[in-house]
Amino acid sequence: MPGVCVGIAGGSGSGKTVLVRKLCRALKGTRVVVVKQDDYYRDQSQVSPDERARKNYDHPSAIEFDLLVSHVRDLKNGKPVMAPVYDFVTHNRAGCREVRPGGLVIVEGILVLAVPELREMLDLSVFVDQSQDVRLSRRITRDIRQRGRSRADVLDQFNATTGPMHAEYVEPSRAFADVLVRGDSSARAEVAALAGRLKSMMDAIGP
């Protein structure tokens, strides 16, 4: 029996990953499968490290959306997939992992609501809202700690591609959201309401 599929979009640093963690905790006891758009950056084995570092990773063309759509469709229909795993340090794929289906499939990424083929499979669309200043601050902290980048590199990328691509693709996609959630700690009631809504949707489908 098909599972429930929810898409969670929003700008880089908006709080999407934190929201996903909170939903997983709130839905404890439910088999939740998380599919990250970032893992579907195109393979760049034939591209030099310098060329990889210069690529615009915020443009839709950087993502292998055909594969992502195919995998989400299979998971929603109860079929396992071999999903790619992406390494942000090398800017390349680092292998793959088996992902098994569950009652709830969460698809998370900045462009999840910007792709019509992906939107069509979603039973619920969520956009995480946060100011640019907060998003940039969070991105600087994350990329320095987790991805080995300097503050200057993060700022350069944000000004050159992340900010402009957000304005062109990410922000307009909020119009397709069924639910808007604030990307901060004060959104507890919104998160609880969203978890309750998802649980009701899964209950309606049945075991």
Fold and architecture overview:
The strands form two sheets. The protein has a five-stranded parallel sheet with strand order 2-5-1-6-7, with helices on both faces. It has a two-stranded antiparallel sheet with strand order 3-4. It is of the alpha/beta class. A hairpin with a 4-residue loop joins β3 and β4 (92-99). It is built from seven helices and seven strands; from the N terminus they run βαβααβββαβααβα. It has helices at residues 16-26, 49-54, 65-76, 116-119, 132-147, 151-173, 188-205; strands at residues 4-10, 32-36, 81-87, 92-99, 104-108, 124-129, 179-182. 33% of the residues are buried. Helix content is 43%, strand content 20%. It has one domain (4-197): Rossmann fold (3-Layer(aba) Sandwich), CATH 3.40.50.300. The N and C termini lie close together (8 Å). The model has no long low-confidence stretch (mean pLDDT 92).
- Give the full name of the CATH homologous superfamily: P-loop containing nucleotide triphosphate hydrolases
CATH-defined fold name: Rossmann fold
Using the alpha-carbon principal axes, give the shape.
globular
CATH class: Alpha Beta
Please describe the biggest sheet, giving its number of strands, its sense, and whether it closes into a barrel. 5 strands, parallel
As a percent range, the share of strand residues is 15-25%
Backbone CA Rg: 17 Å
H/E series, N to C?
EHEHHEEEHEHHEH
How many domains? The number is 1
Count of helices?
7
Would you identify the CATH architecture?
3-Layer(aba) Sandwich
Uncertain runs: none
Oligomer: single chain
**Cα-to-Cα separation, first versus last residue:** 8 Å
Q: Structural class of the secondary elements?
A: alpha/beta
- The percent range for helix content is 40-55%
Q: What is the topology, as strand order, of the major beta sheet?
A: 2-5-1-6-7
Number of strands: 7
Mean pLDDT: 92
